[in-house]
Amino acid sequence: MDITPLNPGFVGDATGIDLTRSLTEQQVAAIEAGMDRFAVLVFHGQPFDDETQMAFSRNFGPLEVSSGAEMAKPEDRRLKLEMADISNLDRDNRLRPPDDKTRLGSLGNRLWHSDASFRAVPAKYSLLSARIIPGSGGNTEFADMRAAYDTLDRATKAQIEDMITEHSTAYSREVIGFPKENYGAHNQDKLRPVRHRLVRTHPVTGRKSLYLSAHIGTIVGWPVPEARAFIRDLTEHATQPQFTHAHQWRVHDLVIWDNRTTLHRARRYKDLHEIRDLHRTTVRGDAQTAPQQEAA
Fold this sequence. Notes:
This protein has helices at residues 25-37, 50-57, 67-71, 101-106, 145-150, 154-160, 169-175, 224-238; strands spanning 2-6, 11-15, 40-43, 84-87, 123-132, 140-144, 164-167, 194-197, 199-201, 208-210, 216-219, 244-247, 254-258, 262-266, 277-284. It has 296 residues and is an alpha+beta fold.
């Protein structure tokens, strides 16, 4: 496997490996080393189906149950529980109408976020496979939270070193006007905020990074308005062009990113009558980043 750095250097274009086949321990280790060096790896020409994608993903740890699948009624699920349905299709593979609640809730993916930061043990890797893509638009953008942290001034680094934030899916959907009640009474407990450190240290490289997300609703001990303004300032800093990269999808691309060290967001595609169908697996993290207390 060869990896060619892409601008600005935290994304690698990986070639010379077929991920749909069983991998050796050495190949898995090479991919993990590439993820430690970069934070996003792009693999073209990987014709996954759901079973082969899940099998490949399990090389890096146990898979999370998709939060969307977890909250959906069984009769409404299109994919297996371990697959996040990043599409505009319903169970019968028909385009969702403009007022469909699932479609409207998924628009929160256009906000800068880290997958599963709303869980007490947040995600490690996300692996997104492109099955059908629209004719234009629909890119995914990534931001390097290591470089963003490195360029903060010394006073800000000292201020945020031990800062604890609270994350919930409800916070990010609130931003786009999707009310908490739309999740249904049976899902309200799943929206309970969890706590995370704002500064994380990578377990292999020892490099520090910001742990930001649209799922952040407040900072522990801060008034909510002040906390949200401060998090917005940090996010604006962290998503400046020098820290970001836009991936333009091709069919059968697989992109892996490290949720501990990156932010990402989906971009709008112009023709909503076109199908956009991507399937995501998510590898669980292995530890909490902060003690979980009853959220304020």
